[in-house]
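Notes from the 1:1 (GR / supervisor)

We went over the backlog. Supervisor wanted to see one worked example end to end before approving the batch request, so GR pasted a single chain during the call. The sequence is below; no edits were made to it. Supervisor asked that the structure be written out right there so they could see what the output format looks like.
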Amino acid sequence: MKHIPHIFLCLILLLAFSACTSKSPMDRYIDDLMSRMTLEQKIGQLNLHSAPGFISAERVMDNDENAKLLREGLLGGIYGSSNPALMRQYQDIALQSGAGIPLIFGMDVIHGHQTVFPIPLGLATSWNMELIEKTARVAAREATACGINWVFSPMVDICRDARWGRIAEGAGEDPYLGGEIAKAMVYGYQGRDEVFDVDEVMACVKHYALYGGAEAGRDYNSVFLSRQEAMNGYMNPYKAACEAGAGSYMSSFNEFEGIPASMNEWLMDDVLRKGWGFDGFIVSDATAILEETAHGIGDLQEVSARSLQAGLDMDMNSDGYVGTLKKSLEEGRITKADIDRACRRILEAKYRLGLFDNPYRYFSEERYASEVFTLENRSFARKVAQECQVLLKNDGTLPLRKGAKIAVVGPLAKDAAAMAGTWATSSHNDESVTLWQGISEVTPASYAEGSWLYGDAAIEDAVRYGLIRMFAPGVPIPPVHERPQKLLVAEAVMKAITADVVVACVGEIAGMNGEGASRSDITIPDSQIELLKAVKATGKPLVVVLVTGRPLVLTDIEPLADAILTVWSPGIEGGHAVADVLFGDANPSAKLTTSFPRSVGQLPLYYNHKNTGRPHPDDVPYRKFTSCYIDELNGPLYPFGYGLSYTTFSYSDVSLSADEMPHGGHVTASVTVTNTGYRDGMETVQLYIHAIHSTSTRPVKELKGFRKVFIPAGQSVSVDFQLDEETLSYYNHELQWACENGDYEILIGPDSRDTQMVRISVQ
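Structure output shown during the call:
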């Protein structure tokens, strides 16, 4: 008996040694580091500041404030700088002070870094996952060459209301497609393994969660959804990014179920961490913790404590953590374990990025000179933009004949910033190839500005110079509307009269969409409509090139135009790429990922809506006592998945390998697509399902697969889709992922409106 204590002691020592040796090298390193850190240093790791002058909220940091906090060990990261010298200076200070922990450097690399690609909504219309992944790969290589190792992308918010300006930053209205794009972006940024190479960055998935469901399409607004609708209609892209290995997430500004997202435990802990197994860190959006006080939740100390406890690890620009957590710990509002947990997650991210081995590994003058904004990258950007233009209408006017006399008109024809688009932080934005430049390099062309952007001078001034007036009030600003609208229109008409074809470049400049740019009226401004009507009256063919960051109401434009080409904000090589499509050097293949409404009153509008007890067909006029409008059709002007080509395609009937599918089995759906035109082309074949009966209501259609295929002129391609339980499953009322027994419609076609249907039974 007297030997038992000795045996227990040996057993305890053995277990302790086993636990220690079973830990990973990262765990052992961080255990040792944290054992030497003070409480203040741990809290400091949770603090993120913007670089001097970077504008992401009304609070703008200065250099002295950042340097002071760094010397005190109270900053874990800096974001918003592409200046290697400044970032090196900050890293030097961080390593010489406090615990000597390196900084992480973040940046809003949304659609390219120095080489700007089409805005994300435009990229999505390519339906080309390999292409999208490669854009993120190029962006990662460029960003890492100047010291950036963390990018606030991909933005995966699903949006059904085009009034929301930030629809420009996402993939559109469909959760399945959004999930595929989220994975492609994460793979492009981070690679496909857990080791970060020197030219890979950590992705930050945003905005978690449900930000795209903002009520009335108004930015920063509340979100009102059931959990079931959230999981089925919105959450899949966030989940897909997690499955792809995303290293971090950014919380969103909105509230959900009465709790701001940045302190919403159900979203961050129950779903993201426990449900999906996410083990990275979560950062707030800019000043989101401070903004929680405006929701009426409590003062800065209260909301900071609640955010930390809910699972938010890093505070961006609020100074709520660094300013209040020590006091909350002393008062018992939070525990030391809460702080340690968040600190460890951030240190793990820095370890995975290799910053403890070499804090300067992402600075490379050699790579910066050889990999950033290269001719190769610009050439690739041109190829990408060719594949991201949606041909909405064409009566045969396109492609244009080289050598034809073209009149290029419109307020966006020479706007380089409109080519770059929202959240383009490249120092080369003013080098973007304009539409005028791209067209005039191909064929003789004349130019006229044609119209004001807006008829209302105050609105035009706000969208052009709003940020300058807010943050640099002393900077001289040229007045808008210097020349009369009638004179501008008259000049365009004169150019049109002497031309063979008119190309009108209209739509939105970069300031009319993106963050903080919601619009209650998403029609083309009246001043631009006046221009289109005037040049149409000349009798010359009219091609509308639509520059935009959102779906627009084109009901007034559609009858005026002989062709409509939606080019979004197409990026640094936009003008060249648009000319490639206009003149037929590239065959358009893009398809919409958002529905284009007939009128603003239809919003929110999306193809995968639920049925009602009194359904009404999309294309049938008003009929009383059904779910419809007196003055408008239910359906969109252009549906989700829609896009024309310079060739034509026909679809065979859909065939199934079996009419029944057992649980655990699979069935193959097949269709033959034939290129019936005279040009080679690419077609995106789309698979939708509809559950005829279900324990909870389901959408009228749900995208569950797609294939983008190249088909030579006159040839056919067989396209197969494998259906299984995953294809047919959804979150039921208990939020269980389930494939229920019953009959399902399988629909295949070129878009969500034009499909062919067969039925399958699951038993």
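Supervisor's comment: The two ends are 64 Å apart (CA to CA).
Batch request approved.
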